[in-house]
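Researcher: I'd like a candidate sequence for this fold, 1603 residues long. If you have to choose between options at a position, lean toward the conservative one.
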């Protein structure tokens, strides 16, 4: 590593390297003895960590850039995995390089700067060299680098170094300037910062500004960094990632060890038929070659054919028993493949869509033993260790109580009840075995109401199924109870179970020994069990055996349910939901309790510190107060002061100091505000005499100005009242004009209307023509309606078209019918004879005879019916036919007779059909007579009726002519509506009726005369309004002048400021009552004297009060010192408790640590539970766990996932925890684990369970779901596992019946207990074969992969080493069919239709019956190995070999499922009823629409009429609106006048009030003068007189002017 500094000129790099080397040598002890090479490794490790932080913020493209530049910089290879791991643990805070921390220990910032600038330059070069400024993520990377080192400079306190570095690297003075320069540079490119998160970078810098603290680091951290960098170099430097030399199928064979049996090209797919190395499982691995998967999936027939060929090829390999897995391999051209459609199809075998890597994982086994282990210490033990030091362990178990906190702070311990002093260190040999498998369970004494079977012997795979409540879960809880002495579900309800000797659980240990567990044994040895199985050190804490058991060996469905349904995206929810899942709800409850105590201790610590601080502060205050107390008195200066102020009544003051000076202060305070009034108005230099004169002069001027303003206001009021009266007159005239205008409008309307009406009524002939046309049109429409009624009956029309309407008599009709029957019988007789005679001839002669017969039959004219040649005559054609076809006379006679009979039959049928038509037509005419009068009128005159019907076109033409005439007349104004309106006007209009009543002149002249009179009336009204408006204008001008004068007077009054004047006057009068004010004295001097006395008096009063407070302050000081002595130890004890709680790691940290340490295994399980490529990985960050979609690399949080996807996360965590606990019992209890998953996810989970079983895991699985039961059976039957099923059958008032069955043909371990036998090689080989089938119960796979030589010799000698696994087929073919397939097969088996028509009718509910028949044959291939239905003919049929068997299955099936079939039939009938109702609803809907159309037509007519009325109403409304607006205007004018009158009244009242106040003041002044005269003092100011003969006032100087 080459070190550098910026801005130091040439040789700076060499100098920097020398400095680093020198520091490492001189300060070796402080730097832990690191060599230069080791320190360089730490620097390189820092650079990689910083780049990993950048890596975590980038997209995939930019991540690849970071990997490349890092590999170039350090000459490393394939760094992406390392960066992924480091990025997983990257924090959002600034990473402080370990090398900078190490040099910072020296306290010399120069060395820190060298390391900082070296790392900055290295990272800047790597980001700048691949800077693409058109890529926003590339811009983000460069800005992130500059922001990171900006933030780091604050942490290291080397801000200037950052500025120098930015200048050298980017020619900018800092980060902000760099950002601004980029914005200026990209003004035309708005997307350059699309992915740049400036707010995140700003926050990074701001946080570092405020939080500059970082830990020094330990020697172990630095040593770990050196070791980690060494590992990175060993793994990546100068190496090439291991690449598979082989590709494709050869790579799969190499990685899995499977053997290929045959490779076949089927329908363009490369199909490899293989078998597994250590099992009977078969694999068909399919590569896309000439055909793509999408090409056949979309075509159901092609896919079915492909699968059928695949199956047939598999049968040829003699593979009728083994389990077959069909794997479709994904390649680069595999987008848009319907994976779910493929994997959900179970025809011929289980199907998967995998990549090559996933295929290798699947064949080798999904589950591999994990090397990762969960941390040995559980959260409760870590919390207990911390709290035990402060005696606070009860905070984990006890509910919060304030009294408990107070008791602890008072010195009491708060230890948990479960802490004891057992010495476990003396235990040397454990009597607790490591459990391999569960052998059997005795349930006697445990929930006897559930079980009728007291002993249950288990296999490796155990399926418990039955109805809910039948006891399945109780079996698992019996196992849990026997092993842990607790049942979590019961414990959560705080119910205690008796720890007696039952249930008894017999287990195999890892050395094939058998042991027995009971609740009593487990409770007694719970800590030792927990140590042996789960690696928990024995301590003094309460055992968490049950929690660990449910964590590692049982899928807690309730915790999973909470994880699935009750989690949100908050941090607390994340910790809680995974805490429940990983550690159990008890641990979560422990955390909630100590967190509550933590908050209480924090709150109490704050309160106690505040109380202690307050006590210390108050004690200090009282001490300083007592030190500052003084006894100096101000009494002499106060006495001198009140004499100088000439206080009135000094002699009446108390004599004692304690009463005298408070009284003086009280008197001084009482007049303080009056002194302040005089002080604030700039009168300090004025004498008291001048102030009094100024006040008197202001009062006189105020009185004068006020009287003038009042007079002018009264004149304004009078003018306003006069204007109001005039405006009232104008308003009345306006109202009058409104009425006149309305009458004028009415007359104008009448004139216009009369012109139109007169024009219409004068054309009487036109009016008559309109009425005649209307009558004729009505008659024509009625007749057309009648004709349409007749035309709706085709029989009547056809009858009327006959030339002769006379029918046959009854005798004639019977005669013709009899003759027709006889002719038909004779023709049949002759045709039979003809056919018999024809048989005597040869084949060609028969054809010739038939040809002649057909020719004569088809011949209707002289044109040949065969070749189309036209002959001269018909006879000529007959002769040619006779000559061409020579037959004997007998055959010719028969042919001729047949032809004659056929012609006669046709004639007779024609006669009878004509008679039927006549009869039907007459019946319909009889029914129509009531509706159509013309039918009754014509009677039997059918020709007249026919002429009536055929006149339709003539009537329609006439109707069109009439409509055209009406349209022309309407355009001229002669519509029916207009004519009626004109006639109505002359009979109803009031004006016209008035004219008729007078009976003089012409109506038009009458209207003109009325119009002139109204216009004259309107002109007179307008003239009056103009005169009124002129008067108002004159009054308003006068009013404006008066207002200007009033404004001038108000300005003069405002200048006087009478409020201040009155305040000054009141202040002077008040001071004179308390002091003898000198008339010539200056106000400012007197005020200074007053304040001097006031201040001294206050000090004296305080001194007197302090004498009483000293004793009280000494008492308070003693109390506060006692509080300090009491609280200090409580604060110290509380502080230790708070510190202990601060050390407590949260449950979320344990959860995160557990998930992070197992995230790869969890991710592996999670990916496997979904479709191939649906998710890339599962990962975790500060916000919680998330998945990455394969489609777009989008992160999906748990709250965004579906219920099924969340359940897969819960399952994946549980599997990972189980795999990470190597010493835990090797079995899993799964209680209804897959309820929320879809079929594909269920199958994938079952694959994982199968793979775990291959790794020696015993499975206990419960379910009540029928589909789940079938899927589980299909997965584990016909395998080498010891697979047992337990069916739980509920019974009334009795325990459930348990039906146990062993599915696979494997021997139990108990059959191998013949320890005393001496075995030869042949016997050993046989037993070894049994052991191979049961190897999971004894040994691991690694122990049996290689057989000993003796076994190979025995096999060569002909001894069978491994028996084939027998797979039993379903007993009933009907059970393999779905409902549609069964119903179609029923048609062929039970109904057996004889014709195609009958068959099509029976299968009419199934339009896709051909596809269903194919599906039945496909299943028959599986069941019978050949098809059973022949579909080559038009009428399909069941092969005779299978017909009887299928009939029997049909009867058995329907006898068993009679109730279900009745329900199905009822459902079908209900569907048919629903269909009929739907048809009826459609018909009623059509009728409803027809009625609505008719109603709409009627409504249209009504709307037209309503529009006319609306138009008239709108005109009336407009007139009313105009009148209303005028009325509102009038009211507004009235309101305004009222408001003006009110304001005038208020002004008058205020003026009267002011006058009354002035008069009152004048009266008081006069009364004061009278009092002064009585006192023989100056009547103006109350001052005393001086002089013997000419007496003058001492204050104001005025002479005495009264006797």
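Model: Candidate sequence:
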């Amino acid at each position: 590593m080459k070190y550098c500094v910026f801005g130091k000129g040439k040789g700076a790099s060499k100098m920097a390297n020398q400095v680093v080397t020198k520091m490492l040598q001189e300060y070796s002890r402080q730097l832990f003895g690191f060599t230069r090479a080791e320190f360089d490794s730490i620097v390189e490790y820092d650079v990689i960590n910083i780049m990993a932080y950048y890596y975590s913020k980038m997209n995939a493209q930019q991540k690849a850039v970071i990997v490349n530049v890092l590999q170039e910089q350090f000459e490393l290879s394939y760094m992406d995995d390392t960066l992924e791991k480091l990025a997983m643990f990257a924090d959002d805070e600034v990473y402080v390089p370990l090398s900078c921390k190490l040099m910072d220990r020296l306290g010399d910032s120069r060395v820190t700067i060298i390391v900082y600038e070296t790392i900055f330059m290295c990272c800047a070069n790597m980001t700048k060299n691949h800077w693409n400024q058109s890529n926003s993520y590339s811009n983000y990377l460069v800005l992130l680098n500059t922001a990171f080192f900006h933030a780091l400079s604050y942490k290291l306190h080397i801000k200037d170094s950052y500025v120098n570095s930015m200048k050298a690297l980017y020619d900018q003075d800092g980060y902000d300037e760099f950002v601004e320069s980029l914005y200026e540079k990209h003004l035309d490119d708005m997307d350059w910062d699309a992915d740049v998160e400036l707010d995140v970078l700003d926050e990074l810098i701001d946080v570092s500004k405020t939080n500059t603290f970082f830990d020094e680091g330990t020697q172990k951290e630095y040593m770990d960094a050196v070791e980690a960098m060494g590992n990175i170099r060993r793994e990546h430097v100068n190496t090439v990632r291991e690449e598979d030399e082989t590709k494709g199928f050869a790579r799969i064979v190499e990685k899995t060890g499977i053997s290929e049996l045959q490779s076949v090209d089927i329908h363009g797919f490369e199909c490899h038929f293989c078998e597994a190395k250590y099992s009977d499982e078969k694999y068909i691995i399919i590569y896309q070659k000439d055909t793509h998967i999408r090409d056949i999936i979309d075509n159901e027939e092609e896919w079915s054919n492909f699968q059928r060929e695949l199956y047939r090829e598999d049968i040829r390999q003699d593979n009728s028993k083994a389990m077959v897995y069909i794997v479709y391999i994904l390649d680069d051209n595999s987008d848009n493949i319907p994976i779910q459609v493929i994997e959900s199809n179970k025809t011929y075998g289980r199907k998967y869509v995998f990549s090559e890597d996933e295929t290798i994982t699947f064949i080798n086994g999904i589950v591999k033993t994990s090397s990762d282990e969960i941390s040995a210490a559980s959260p409760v033990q870590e919390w207990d260790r911390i709290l035990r030091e402060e005696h606070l362990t009860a905070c984990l178990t006890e509910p919060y109580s304030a009294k408990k906190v107070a008791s602890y702070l008072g010195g009491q311990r708060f230890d948990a009840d479960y802490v004891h002093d057992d010495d476990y260190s003396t235990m040397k040999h454990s009597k607790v075995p490591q459990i391999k498998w569960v052998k059997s369970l005795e349930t006697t004494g445990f929930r006897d109401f559930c079980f009728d079977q007291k002993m249950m012997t288990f296999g490796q795979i155990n399926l418990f199924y039955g109805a809910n409540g039948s006891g399945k879960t109780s079996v698992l809880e019996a196992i849990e109870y026997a092993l842990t002495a607790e049942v979590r579900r019961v414990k959560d309800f705080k119910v205690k179970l008796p720890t007696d000797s039952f249930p008894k659980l017999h287990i195999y240990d890892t050395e094939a020994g058998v042991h027995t567990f009971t609740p009593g044994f487990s409770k007694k040895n719970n800590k030792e069990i927990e140590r042996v199985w789960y690696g928990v050190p024995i301590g003094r804490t309460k055992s968490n055996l049950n929690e660990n058991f449910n964590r590692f060996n049982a899928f807690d469905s309730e915790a999973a349910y909470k994880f699935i349904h009750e989690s949100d995206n908050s941090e607390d929810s994340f910790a809680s939901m995974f805490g429940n899942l990983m550690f159990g709800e008890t641990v979560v409850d422990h955390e909630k309790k100590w967190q509550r105590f933590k908050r209480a201790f924090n709150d109490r610590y704050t309160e106690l510190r505040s109380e202690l601080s307050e006590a210390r502060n108050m004690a200090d205050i009282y001490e300083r107060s007592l030190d500052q107390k003084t006894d100096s008195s101000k009494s002499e200066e106060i006495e001198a002061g009140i004499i100088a102020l000439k206080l009135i009544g000094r002699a009446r003051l108390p004599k004692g100091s304690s009463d005298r000076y408070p009284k003086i202060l009280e008197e001084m305070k009482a007049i303080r505000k009056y002194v302040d009034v005089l002080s604030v108005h700039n009168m300090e230099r004025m004498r008291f005499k001048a102030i009094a004169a100024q006040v008197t002069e202001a009062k006189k001027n105020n009185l004068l100005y006020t009287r003038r303003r009042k007079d002018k206001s009264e004149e304004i009021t009078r003018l306003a009242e006069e204007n109001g009266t005039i405006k009232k007159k104008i308003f009345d005239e306006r109202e009058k004009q409104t009425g006149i205008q309305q009458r004028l409008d009415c007359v104008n309307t009448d004139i216009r209307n009369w012109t139109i009406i007169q024009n219409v009524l004068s054309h009487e002939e036109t009016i008559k023509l309109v009425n005649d046309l209307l009558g004729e049109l009505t008659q024509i429409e009625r007749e057309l309606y009648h004709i349409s009624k007749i035309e709706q009956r085709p029989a009547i029309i056809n009858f009327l078209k006959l030339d002769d309407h006379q029918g046959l008599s009854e005798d004639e009709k019977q005669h013709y019918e009899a003759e027709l029957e006889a002719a038909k019988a004779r023709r049949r007789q002759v045709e039979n004879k003809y056919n018999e005679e024809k048989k005597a001839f040869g084949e060609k002669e028969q054809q010739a005879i038939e040809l002649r017969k057909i020719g004569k039959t088809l011949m209707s004219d002289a044109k040949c019916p065969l070749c189309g040649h036209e002959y001269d005559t018909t006879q000529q054609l007959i002769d040619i036919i006779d000559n061409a076809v020579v037959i004997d006379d007998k055959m010719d006679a028969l042919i001729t007779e047949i032809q004659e009979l056929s012609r006669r039959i046709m004639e007779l049928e024609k006669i009878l059909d004509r008679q039927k038509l006549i009869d039907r037509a007459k019946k319909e005419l009889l029914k129509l007579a009531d509706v159509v009068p013309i039918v009754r009128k014509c009677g039997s005159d059918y020709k007249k009726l026919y002429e009536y019907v055929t006149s339709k076109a003539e009537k329609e033409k006439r109707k069109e002519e009439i409509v055209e005439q009406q349209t022309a007349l309407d355009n001229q104004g002669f519509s029916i509506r207009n004519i009626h309106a004109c006639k109505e006007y002359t009979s109803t209009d009031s004006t016209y009726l008035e004219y008729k009543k007078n009976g003089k002149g012409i109506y038009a002249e009458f209207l003109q005369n009325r119009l002139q009179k109204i216009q004259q009336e309107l002109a007179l009204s307008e003239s009056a309004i103009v005169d009124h408006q002129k008067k108002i204008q004159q009054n308003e001008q006068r009013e404006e002048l008066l207002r200007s004068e009033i404004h001038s007077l108000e300005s003069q009054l405002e200048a006087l400021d009478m409020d201040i004047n009155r305040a000054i006057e009141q202040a002077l009068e008040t001071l004179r009552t308390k002091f003898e004010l000198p008339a010539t004295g200056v106000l400012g001097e007197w005020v200074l004297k007053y304040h001097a006395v006031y201040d001294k008096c206050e000090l004296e009063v305080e001194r007197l009060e302090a004498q009483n407070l000293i004793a009280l302050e000494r008492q308070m000081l003693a109390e506060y010192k006692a509080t300090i002595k009491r609280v200090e130890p409580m604060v110290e004890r509380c502080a230790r408790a708070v510190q202990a709680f601060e050390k407590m790691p949260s449950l979320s940290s344990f959860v995160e640590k557990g998930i992070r340490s197992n995230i790869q295994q969890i991710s592996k399980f999670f990916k496997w539970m979904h479709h191939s490529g649906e998710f890339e990985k599962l990962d975790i960050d500060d916000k919680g766990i998330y998945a990455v979609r394969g489609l777009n690399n989008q992160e999906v949080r748990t709250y965004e996932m579906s219920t099924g996807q969340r359940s897969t996360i819960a399952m994946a965590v549980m599997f990972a925890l189980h795999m990470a606990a190597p010493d835990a019992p090797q079995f899993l209890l799964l209680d209804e684990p897959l309820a929320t998953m879809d079929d594909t996810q269920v199958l994938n989970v079952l694959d994982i369970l199968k793979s775990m079983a291959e790794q020696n895991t015993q499975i206990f699985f419960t379910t009540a779901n029928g589909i789940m039961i079938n899927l589980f059976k299909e997965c584990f039957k016909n395998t080498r596992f010891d697979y047992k099923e337990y069916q739980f059958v509920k019974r009334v008032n009795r325990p459930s019946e348990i039906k146990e069955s062993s599915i696979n043909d494997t021997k139990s371990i108990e059959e191998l207990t013949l320890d005393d036998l001496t075995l030869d090689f042949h016997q050993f080989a046989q037993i070894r074969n049994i052991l191979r089938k049961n190897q999971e119960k004894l040994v691991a796979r690694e122990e049996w992969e290689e057989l000993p030589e003796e076994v190979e010799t025995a096999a060569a000698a002909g001894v069978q080493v491994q028996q084939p696994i027998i797979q039993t087929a379903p007993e009933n073919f009907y059970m393999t069919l779905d409902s549609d397939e069964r119903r179609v097969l029923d048609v062929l088996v039970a109904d057996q239709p004889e014709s195609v028509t009958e068959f099509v009718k029976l299968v009419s509910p199934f339009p896709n019956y051909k596809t269903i028949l194919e599906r039945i044959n496909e299943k028959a291939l599986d069941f019978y190995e050949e098809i059973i239905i022949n579909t080559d003919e038009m009428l399909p049929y069941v092969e005779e070999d299978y017909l009887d068997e299928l009939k029997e299955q049909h009867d058995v099936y329907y006898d068993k499922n009679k109730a279900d079939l009745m329900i199905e039939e009822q459902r079908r009938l209900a569907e048919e009823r629903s269909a009929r109702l739907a048809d009826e609803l459609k018909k009623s809907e059509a009728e409803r629409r027809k009625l609505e159309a008719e109603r709409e037509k009627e409504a249209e007519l009504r709307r037209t009429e309503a529009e006319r009325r609306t138009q008239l109403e709108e005109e009336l409304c407009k007139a009313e609106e105009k009148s209303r607006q005028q009325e509102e205007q009038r009211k507004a004018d009235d309101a305004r006048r009222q408001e003006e009158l009110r304001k005038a009244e208020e002004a008058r009242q205020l003026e009267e009030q002011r006058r009354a106040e002035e008069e009152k003041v004048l009266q008081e002044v006069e009364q004061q003068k009278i009092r002064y005269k009585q006192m023989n003092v100056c009547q103006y100011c109350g001052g005393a007189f001086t002089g013997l003969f000419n007496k003058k006032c001492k204050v104001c100087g005025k002479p005495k002017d009264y006797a």
